[in-house]
Please model this.
Amino acid sequence: MQPTDSITESSEWSETDRKCMRRALELASRGSGLVSPSPLVGCVIVDLEGNLAGEGFYVYDKLKHAETLALEQAGERARGGTAYVSLEPHSHHSRTPPCTDALINAGINRVVAPIEDPNPEVSGRGFAHLREAGVETATGLMASEAERLNEKYMHFIRKNLPFVHLKLACSLDGKIATRTGDSRWVAGEEARARAHHLRHEYDAIMVGTGTALADNPLLTDRSGKERRRPLVRIVLDERLQLGPNSKLALTAEEAPVLVFTSKEADDAAAAKLSMRGVEVFRVDGGSRNLRAVLEEIGRRSLQSILLEGGGKIAGAFLDAGLVNKATFFIAPIIIGGLDAPSAVAGKGAERMADAIRLRDVEIIPRGQDIEVTGYPRRTDEEETRRHGDAATRR
Model:
């Protein structure tokens, strides 16, 4: 085949294109909890007559990529057909051979993928390899949906920091517990079940010392879904108050527990936790040095964190501009009390104009509760880059 520079504009997408890309994204989502630190990828192969010939989705431990699985299912029907892939196919040798080679060798005539893979080893090279082999490539279809699906991976690759999702349950008046510290349960059963499904999507869960001491939680994923790696439990504990007989310490051999503390933290307390299997990290500037904490977590290839509070840690991350996504479960109850802890503490905004506003807000009923999810607004520069990326056509 001769090289091609064919471009498909969004106005030219057919109903088949849209249907197949929706299916590729749905297939990719099935890898949730099973692919990190890699991205979620789904693939649909359509033959020359426009009929479904093969499909597949990526799971890290099964090695074969979505494209390979779909091509194997399609067999000879792939020749001359179209591949719909939820992310740019890779053209380099990694744990698996290049997916672009598999697509080319199978005789695929056209590849539709919504967005580039930001990984420097992939970014643009997969599309270029396909075009050089004469394969028509088209991008931009459902780009926003594809970006959202892989938001944790995309952020981790671009920023080299974990994606932080703040999750809190609060009353109508913004309280997360009563003045006596009672917090069971602010939200109802359906909201709590949804919270465990959120835990399943993340590599790690993080709380502050106050929550760890008050609730003595296990911080486990009780969604019942399969996951590739155990949920890593993280505590920011400036004075190293977490005890060796806490539920977290007692289960550290079953699932990792990381505690971030200050350089001055008590050596004996650290030794007792270490004997239980807890990993204690002493950070310059202490656990309040949130960027240093995130950098260390990122070095462990943990690309995402579900931040579960309490109010002090939520406020600290928001003040530092390190929250990438926020979900509040709001219960139809009024707790009251000046001394009852609020969902978000920290420094906060001085003026209403400085308050953190969310974009792309989604509101979903969860039993009697309401789930509100959105993204803290980016700077103008970041918004411009985001929309520019989504509009790119190859």
